Each structure stands twice: as C-alpha cells, then as structure tokens.
Amino acid sequence: MRKREGLVDAWGGIVAGVAGGLAWAVAAPAGAAAVPIGVGVAVAVYGVKVAAGALARRGMREPGAGELPQPERGSPADIWQGRALRAIRDLHELAHSQPDAPPLLRSVDDGARQAEDQVRRLAGQAAAVTRATYRIPTPRLADERARLAASVETAGSAELREEHRRSLRSVEEQLAAADRLASARDTLVARLQSTALGLEGLVARATEVLALSASAGAGTATDRIAGLAAELDGLRAGLAETEELSRRVLDRG
C-alpha cells in the first residue's frame, strides 16, 4: 500500500507536468520532436520526485508491530541514549585494549553489553510516551476545563449542571492521563541521564584501574574492578525497575 502511495504523488505530477510543458515550449521550434522531449522531461522529473519521496520515508520509518519508536533526533532521550551507548563502547574497548588486562574487567564489559539492550528499550519507551503525550491536546483541554467549571456554577437547572459536570469529569480524566504520561516521560529521561552519567563514570574509573594495575598490583586492581561490577549491577537494576514502571504506564494508556 505504501509503495503504491509513493507512486501516486499529486504534487509530483504537477511539478513534472510544468517541467514537461516548459521543455515542450522551448523545443517547439523543433516541430514534431517537441512532444517526445516534453514527455521525456516530465517522466524524468516525476521519477526523481518519487525516488526522493521514497528515500525520505525510508529515513522516517514507522515502528513495526511490537517495536518501540526511536527517540526524536536531538531530544533529551536521544542525547542521553547516545552518551550511554558511547560509554558502553568505551568500556568494551578498554576491556580489550590490553592483553594483560585483569580478567574481571571482561565481566564488567559483558555486563555493559547486556545493559545496552536495556538502554535502547528505555529510550524507545521514552519516545513512545512522548508520542502519546502529543495525542492529548492539553492546552485546549485546560481551556475547556475552565469553561466547563464556570458553566457548572452558572447552570440554570440541575439537569444542565449535571451535563456540564459529566463533561468536566471527562476533560479532567484526559488531563490526568496527560500528567501521568508527562511524569513517566520525565522519569524515563532522568533514568537515561543517570545511567549515561554512571556509565561514563565507570569508563573513567576503569581507565584508572588499567593505569594502576601495572604499578599497584593485581590485587588492588581486582578489588576496584569488583566495585565497578557492583556499581554496574546497580545501574542495570535501576534500568529494569524503570522499564517495568514505564511498561505499566504504557499498558494503562
């Protein structure tokens, strides 16, 4: 269906028709050759328009069934996800940068790799919640709440007052849902931020451990890496907890 929509482009047809007409007008002195020239230009322009549209749609792919959307480029979720993933890559490079790196550092790398999927899911949930907030027209509903509250007070009959109250309750329920979604979004982004900063801290301390391992001895390095592994476990547990909370919000929404 989408492919067919890409081929049927009204504006593309108009632009192609105009371009073909101009080409025909320019080539008109050539006589009979002007018509095929105009048609050829129109077809070429339309083909370019369709191809460009297809490329644009490919770059804005909608999530499939069961998939979470990607955060909007430049959004807080996108920024913190990017920093977290870069820190995970840095940990991986550190763990494999030296042949004599403490073996326990590899386990930190394995834990970070497992956290990568959690980070991506959390960023996807933040994107999904953000999209859900866009569907609720909060400013308009706030205006309607004020108007309906005034109508309840000035209603001329009990029946009319009850109708206004019913409408007011509906508006308030929608605004409450918007508040829950906004709170869930902020929580998700805050967790992504703390995770990214925590992972960056792990990178700094892992770098220090590698530098010290050559001079301070393997025992000291092992103790410090064990502390890094415990901190990473805490980050992953926090990710899992936040992910479960946001999943319940999305299911309820």
Word description of this protein:
It is a single chain. With 253 residues, this protein is mainly alpha-helical. The protein has two domains: 2-59, no CATH class; 76-252. The chain has eight helices and no strands. The protein has helices at 2-7, 10-27, 34-59, 76-95, 103-134, 138-154, 158-216, 218-252. Helix 5 (103-134) packs antiparallel against helix 7 (158-216). The chain is rod-shaped and about 85 Å long. Residues 1-12, 22-27 and 41-60 have low confidence and may be disordered.
Spell out the key features of this protein:
2 domains, 8 helices, 253 residues, disordered N terminus, single chain, mainly alpha
Write the element-wise H/E pattern from the N-terminal end onward.
Answer: HHHHHHHH
Percent helix: over 70%
> What share of the residues does DSSP label as strand, in percent?
under 5%
Helix/strand-derived category reads mainly alpha
Number of domains: 2
Describe the main β-sheet briefly.
Answer: none
Residue stretches low in confidence (pLDDT < 50, at least 5 long) are 1-12, 22-27, 41-60
Mean pLDDT: 75
The oligomerization state is single chain
User: Radius of gyration over alpha carbons?
Assistant: 29 Å
What is the rounded distance between the termini? Answer: 29 Å
Record field, number of beta strands: 0
Count of DSSP H/I helices: 8
Apparent shape: rod-shaped
